[in-house]
C-alpha cells in the first residue's frame, strides 16, 4: 500500500478542467496537501502547501504582482496522505524545492517561489515522510511527469546547488539573524561563524529574503571566485538573476567605480578573504586597490548596510585583511556569533564543535581546551602512518560508497610543476605533464583547475590545494599535513623554504615567521574541516604529528 496519493489537475485559464469525484473534492477542500504547479513548455514551477487547496488556488489567482501568473500553469500535482499534518507538508515542500534547485542547471526550470525562511522542522514521523513519501514521489510521479531529471537523490545531495539552496530550513539562530537584518538594512554586521556553521546557506537565504521583502533594494553580493558560478546558478533558478548577481570583491568594487553606482546593502560570504593592498602576488589581485587601501573601507563607501560573514581562522594569505585589522575596522559593527556546526556530525558524546575546537587547540591556534577528545578516538578521525595509507583511505571509501565525494587535499608544500600555464608545459597532453608529488614511488599531481575542482572528472586522481577546496564540502577527506610545518622548542613553526604558494608568503623586508606560521596553520584548519563523514590525516613531519596527538589526547 502506498503511503501517499496524487492527483494531477489540468487547468484551462486557471480553472480546473478535471471531472472530480466527491472523494477528490473533499481532499482538495479539506486535507493538508503539498502541491506542484507546473508548465513544462515555459519551464515554470511553483511548489506550495495548504490545508485547503481549492481556497488557496483561487487566492493565487487574485494575487497582485505574482512572479508568474497562475493562469499560465497548465497542471498541478497535488500530493495527499494520511500521514500529513502542517509540519509534514511544509517539510515535503522544502524537500521538493531543495532537490529541484540541485538539478536546475540541467532541467532549466525556474522556481517561482518566494522565501518563507522557515526554521528546521521537527515532528514525529519526519523520517517516514522522507523515505515513504518524498523518495518515492521523486523517483515515481515527479520523474515520470518530466519534473525531475535525475532520480538519484544521493548524487543530487552532493551538489553545491543543493547545499547552498536558499530554501534550506534555517536554524533558530540563522533565522534570527535574517529577521534582524531585514529590519535594519542600513546597519553594519560582523557575523563570526566557523567552518561548517552555515555561512553560505545564510548568505543565499538572506539575499533571497531581502530581494523578496524589498523589491527595489540594490543588493551587492560577494564571494570567492570558485563559488560565484554556483551562487549565480542558484539565483537564476529562482528567477532573480537580474537582481542578485554574485561577484568577487574586486569585481564588485571595479564595476561600482566604473558605473558610479552604490548599493543599499552588500553581503560578503567568506569575508576572511577580503584583501588589502599588497605589493606581492599577481597584479590583477590588487588592480582595484591603491597603496594603503583595504576592501572593507572601500565597501563602506559603496553602501550604508554591510554584512560580513567571517571566520578569523580562514585567512590564508598576507593579502587577506588580518583578524586584528578586521577587529579594528569593524569596531562599530554589531557583532553576532553563529556557532552551530552543520558540516561535521557527532554522537551523544561529542559534536562537530568539539572537533573544530580540538583542531584549533591541536595546532596551537587556540588555547581553548573545552572540547571532548573522544572525537579524535572515534571512527570519524584517524591518523595514518604513510602517504599510501591516506590515498588508500580515500580510495576505499570511494569504492565502498560510490555516491559520496571523497578527495585527497594538502597544504601548499609542493611546487605546481604540472601547471599547464608554465612555458615548459605548453602543448603537452595531460598524461605528459610532470608530477608534483613523489613519495615512496607514488606520484600525484596538484588540482588541474581551481573552479569547481571537486566535480571535475580527474579530481579523484589529483591532490587538491587550499585554493581548490575552500568553501567546498567532502564526505571523506584525506589530508596531507606537509613539511611546511615543523616543531621548534615545543612550538609549531613554518618551514618557509617548503611553503610553495608564491603569493602566500610575506614580503621579504617585512617577513615575519609567526605570521607565515599562522597562515599555514589556518590552511590546515580549513583542510581538516572539509569532511562530513570522515577524515584521515598523514603528517609528513612526525614531530608535528607527535605534538598534535599530545594536545588532542591521543
Report on the architecture of this protein.
The chain is of the alpha/beta class and 554 residues long. Helix content is 34%, strand content 19%. It has helices spanning 22-30, 53-61, 86-102, 104-107, 126-144, 153-157, 160-163, 172-183, 199-213, 228-237, 249-259, 295-302, 323-329, 352-362, 387-400, 466-469, 513-528, 542-552; strands at 5-12, 15-16, 33-39, 44-50, 75-80, 110-111, 188-192, 219-222, 246-247, 263-268, 303-310, 334-337, 381-384, 406-410, 437-439, 442-444, 463-464, 474-481, 485-488, 491-494, 531-539. A hairpin with a 2-residue loop joins strand 1 (5-12) and strand 2 (15-16). Helix 14 (352-362) packs across helix 18 (542-552). The radius of gyration is 25 Å and the shape is globular. The protein starts with a strand and ends with a helix.
Q: What's a concise summary of this model?
A:
With 554 residues, this protein is of the alpha/beta class. It has helices at residues 22-30, 53-61, 86-102, 104-107, 126-144, 153-157, 160-163, 172-183, 199-213, 228-237, 249-259, 295-302, 323-329, 352-362, 387-400, 466-469, 513-528, 542-552, and strands at residues 5-12, 15-16, 33-39, 44-50, 75-80, 110-111, 188-192, 219-222, 246-247, 263-268, 303-310, 334-337, 381-384, 406-410, 437-439, 442-444, 463-464, 474-481, 485-488, 491-494, 531-539.
- Biggest sheet overview: 6 strands, mixed
- N- to C-terminal distance: 52 Å
* Uncertain residue ranges: none
Question: Could you say which structural class the secondary elements and strand pairing correspond to?
Answer: alpha/beta
User: Which percent bin holds the helix content?
Assistant: 25-40%
Read across the widest sheet, the strand sequence of neighbours is: 2-1-5-3-4-6
Amino acid at each position: 500500500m502506498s503511503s501517499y496519493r496524487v492527483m494531477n489537475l489540468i487547468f484551462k485559464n486557471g480553472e480546473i478542467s478535471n471531472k472530480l469525484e466527491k472523494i477528490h473534492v473533499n481532499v482538495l477542500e479539506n486535507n493538508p496537501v503539498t502541491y506542484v504547479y507546473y508548465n513544462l513548455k515555459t519551464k515554470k514551477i511553483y511548489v506550495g502547501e495548504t490545508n485547503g487547496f481549492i481556497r488557496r488556488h483561487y487566492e493565487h489567482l487574485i494575487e497582485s504582482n505574482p512572479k508568474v501568473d497562475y493562469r499560465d500553469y497548465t497542471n498541478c500535482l497535488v500530493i495527499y496522505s494520511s500521514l500529513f499534518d502542517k509540519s509534514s507538508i511544509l517539510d515535503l515542500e522544502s524537500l521538493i524545492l531543495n532537490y529541484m534547485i540541485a538539478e536546475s542547471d540541467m532541467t532549466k526550470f525556474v522556481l517561482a517561489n518566494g522565501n518563507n525562511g522557515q526554521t528546521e522542522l521537527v515532528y514525529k514521523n519526519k523520517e517516514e515522510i522522507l523515505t515513504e513519501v518524498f523518495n518515492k514521489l521523486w523517483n515515481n510521479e515527479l520523474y515520470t511527469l518530466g519534473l525531475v531529471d535525475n532520480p538519484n537523490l544521493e548524487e543530487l545531495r552532493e551538489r553545491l546547488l543543493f547545499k547552498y539552496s536558499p530554501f534550506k530550513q534555517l536554524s533558530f539562530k540563522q533565522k534570527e539573524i535574517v529577521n534582524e537584518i531585514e529590519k535594519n538594512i542600513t546597519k553594519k554586521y560582523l557575523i563570526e561563524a566557523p567552518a561548517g556553521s552555515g555561512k553560505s546557506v545564510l548568505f543565499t537565504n538572506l539575499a533571497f529574503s531581502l530581494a523578496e521583502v524589498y523589491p527595489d533594494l540594490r543588493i551587492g553580493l560577494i564571494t570567492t571566485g570558485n563559488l560565484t558560478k554556483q551562487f549565480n546558478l542558484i539565483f537564476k533558478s529562482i528567477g532573480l538573476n537580474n537582481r542578485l548577481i554574485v561577484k568577487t570583491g574586486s569585481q564588485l568594487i571595479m564595476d561600482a567605480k566604473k558605473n558610479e553606482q552604490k548599493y543599499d546593502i552588500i553581503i560578503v560570504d567568506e569575508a576572511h578573504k577580503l584583501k588589502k593592498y599588497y605589493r606581492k602576488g599577481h597584479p590583477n589581485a590588487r588592480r582595484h586597490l591603491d597603496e594603503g587601501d583595504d576592501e572593507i573601507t572601500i565597501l563602506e563607501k559603496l553602501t550604508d548596510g554591510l554584512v560580513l560573514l567571517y571566520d578569523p581562522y580562514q585567512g590564508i594569505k598576507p593579502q587577506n585583511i588580518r583578524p586584528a585589522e578586521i577587529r579594528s575596522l569593524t569596531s562599530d559593527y554589531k557583532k553576532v556569533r553563529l556557532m552551530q556546526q552543520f558540516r561535521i556530525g557527532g554522537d551523544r558524546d561529542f559534536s562537530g564543535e568539539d572537533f573544530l575546537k580540538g583542531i584549533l587547540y591541536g595546532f596551537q591556534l587556540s588555547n581553548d581546551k573545552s572540547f571532548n577528545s573522544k572525537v579524535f578516538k572515534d571512527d570519524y578521525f584517524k591518523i595514518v602512518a604513510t602517504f599510501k595509507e591516506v590515498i588508500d583511505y580515500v580510495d576505499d571509501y570511494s569504492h565502498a560508497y560510490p555516491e559520496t565525494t571523497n578527495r585527497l587535499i594538502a597544504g601548499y608544500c609542493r611546487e605546481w610543476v604540472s601547471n599547464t600555464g608554465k612555458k615548459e608545459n605548453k602543448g603537452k597532453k595531460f598524461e605528459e605533464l610532470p608530477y608534483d608529488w613523489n613519495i615512496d614511488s607514488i606520484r600525484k599531481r596538484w588540482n588541474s583547475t581551481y573552479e569547481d575542482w571537486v566535480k571535475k572528472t580527474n579530481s579523484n586522481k589529483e591532490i587538491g590545494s587550499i585554493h581548490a577546496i575552500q568553501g567546498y564540502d567532502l564526505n571523506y577527506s584525506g589530508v596531507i599535513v606537509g613539511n611546511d610545518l615543523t616543531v621548534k622548542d615545543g612550538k609549531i613553526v613554518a618551514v618557509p623554504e617548503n611553503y610553495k604558494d608564491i603569493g602566500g608568503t610575506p614580503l621579504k623586508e617585512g617577513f615575519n615567521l609567526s605570521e607565515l606560521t599562522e597562515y599555514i596553520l589556518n590552511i590546515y584548519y580549513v583542510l581538516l574541516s572539509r569532511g562530513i563523514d570522515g577524515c584521515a590525516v598523514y603528517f609528513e613531519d612526525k614531530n608535528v604529528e607527535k605534538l598534535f596527538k599530545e594536545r588532542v589526547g591521543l
